[in-house]
Fold 6-phosphogluconolactonase.
Amino acid sequence: MRVAVYRSPAQALEAALAWLLERLVHASSGVLAGGRTPLPLYRALRGLRFRTTLVLSDERWLPPGDPGTNLAQVAEALGPQADHLLPFPLGLPPEEAQKRMEVGLEGLLPLGFALLGVGEDGHTASLFPGHPALESPRLAEVVRDSPKPPPLRLTLTPKALATAEEVLFLALGGAKREAVRRLVAGEDLPPRRIAGANALLITDQEV
Ligand code: 6PG
């Protein structure tokens, strides 16, 4: 995993946006992270033209339309570009949604790219350190014990995410410093299960 350290969050986001724009030119499918960090990137996509089908890395299993879902937050940032999203089917029982998502994913693999966040504990998507979902042979998994609320989530698995031709992990802010340090030190944290030769970690944390 290559690591690029920038002097400020703004410069790191600028570099991440350049990475994303370059992938959107050609990719037919790509993964967008949930969480707060990447939202300015999604807002910057408004007004652009691209054909990529976008999938969220994971979803917080809340009622459809709940503002706390990744879909609500990402769609709000993307604006009209949210039409590119293939969302997790909120409102269904998790196991049914898992099956539906796997069918949808089949047609999108191999993924063109994956833009993923990093949590303070080193998780990515809803793949948490030591969690059985990391070993799943399926393309999507139900997570019922997420340490990051809400506890119930659906997530793409390393099996799905590792098909991405290029992966970018975005970790900004002092709260992510320890996770970045552990990743750079080579610890077997969830991003390591996804990172191939073309993986890049963009951060503002000197480690
Ligand atoms: C979520 C995300 C999660 C996120 C990281 C980083 O549901 O929150 O899928 O994996 O990307 O926790 O979140 P922040 O960018 O908000 O720090």
Observations:
- The helical segments are 9-26, 39-43, 70-78, 94-106, 158-161, 177-184.
- The beta strands are 2-5, 29-32, 53-56, 58-60, 85-86, 113-117, 140-143, 153-156, 166-171, 199-203.
- Residues 9-26 form the longest helix (18 residues).
- Residues 2-203 form a domain with the Rossmann fold fold (CATH 3.40.50.1360).
